[in-house]
């Protein structure tokens, strides 16, 4: 079974702090994604990566950056955390697939609270 | 704009059947996914439809009508463990996933 592991289930940070969310997958997937999930809204894509060193902006990249130095690891960085970034963050991976019809495998999420 | 509509919440009785609808207006269509998400857990894949018709997988079935921009997830013989949110997601013409807000399903004994 594919395992996607997010380093923290819960995080509490202060406004202005730099925050790192780590995600590791063990199935050699090329594609990795960071989403945020808020009540009443669909999953919103922050950034994604189709290969090592590659990154693409999603729908809401402002205030975030990412790093993919190794194939299995995709990190989300909040350069200066703000209260409106309080959310559930979900990492996902999938194999390379031009038609995007391979299911995503999700981590259990990191619930981040910014005070 | 692109839009996926699902009911916010539904309630059903253990042992019964429930149908969760999803309607979409997207720039093109290249497939539709259903995921299940228990509270505090990761979404997990349930089904994928790209052609019209019904796909059956045990107690769960998913239906698609591309001409109507409509899908439903049918859950039979409901069990308490089916209490979860059900997420509908469409692959658009750019092969990007567009997500609905999810339907919270509450199962009562």
Characterization of the model:
The complex is a heterodimer of chains A (115) and B (109). In chain A, 0% of the residues lie in helices and 49% in strands. Chain A has no helices and twelve strands. Chain A starts with a strand and ends with a strand. The model of chain A has no long low-confidence stretch (mean pLDDT 94). By secondary structure, chain B is an all-beta fold. Chain B contains no helices and eleven strands. Chain B starts with a strand and ends with a strand. At the A-B interface, strand 11 of A face strand 5, strand 9 and strand 10 of B.
What's a concise summary of this model?
Chain A has 115 residues and is mainly beta. Chain A is built from no helices and 12 strands. Chain B is mainly beta and 109 residues long.
Oligomer: heterodimer
In DSSP terms (H or I, runs of 4 or more residues), the helix count of chain A works out at 0
Distance between the termini of chain B: 40 Å
Q: Rounded to an integer, what's the Rg of chain A over CA atoms? A: 13 Å
Helix/strand order of chain A: EEEEEEEEEEEE
Throw out a few tags for this protein.
heterodimer; A: 115 residues; mainly beta; seven-stranded mixed beta sheet; three-stranded antiparallel beta sheet; B: mainly beta; 11 strands; 0% helix
Please write out the topology.
The complex is a heterodimer of chains A (115) and B (109).
Chain A (H helix, E strand, L loop, with lengths): L3 E3 L3 E4 L5 E3 L1 E3 L5 E7 L6 E6 L6 E2 L6 E7 L2 E6 L8 E8 L10 E2 L3 E5 L1
Chain B lengths: L2 E3 L3 E5 L4 E8 L6 E6 L6 E6 L3 E5 L2 E6 L4 E6 L8 E8 L5 E3 L3 E6 L1
Parallel strand pairs in B: 2-11
Antiparallel strand pairs in B: 1-3, 3-8, 4-5, 4-9, 6-7, 7-8, 9-10, 9-11
């Amino acid at each position: 079974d594919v395992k996607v592991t997010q380093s923290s289930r819960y995080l509490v940070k202060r406004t202005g702090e730099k925050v790192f969310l780590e995600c590791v997958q063990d199935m050699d997937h090329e594609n990795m994604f960071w989403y945020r999930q808020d009540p009443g809204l669909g999953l919103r894509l922050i950034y994604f990566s189709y290969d090592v060193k590659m990154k693409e902006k999603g729908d809401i990249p402002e205030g975030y950056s990412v790093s993919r130095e190794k194939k299995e690891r995709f990190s989300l960085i909040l350069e200066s955390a703000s209260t409106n970034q309080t959310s559930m963050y979900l990492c996902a991976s999938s194999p390379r697939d031009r038609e995007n019809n391979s299911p995503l495998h999700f981590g259990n999420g990191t619930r981040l609270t910014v005070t | 704009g692109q839009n996926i509509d699902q009911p916010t919440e539904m309630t059903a009785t253990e042992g019964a059947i429930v149908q969760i609808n999803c309607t979409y207006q997207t720039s093109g269509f290249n497939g539709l996914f259903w995921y299940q998400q228990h509270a505090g857990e990761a979404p997990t894949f349930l089904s994928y439809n790209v052609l019209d018709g019904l796909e059956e997988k045990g107690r769960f079935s998913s239906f698609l009508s591309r001409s109507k921009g409509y899908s439903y997830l049918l859950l039979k013989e409901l069990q308490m463990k089916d209490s979860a949110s059900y997420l509908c997601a469409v692959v658009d013409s750019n092969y990007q996933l567009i997500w609905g807000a999810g339907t919270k399903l509450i199962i009562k004994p």
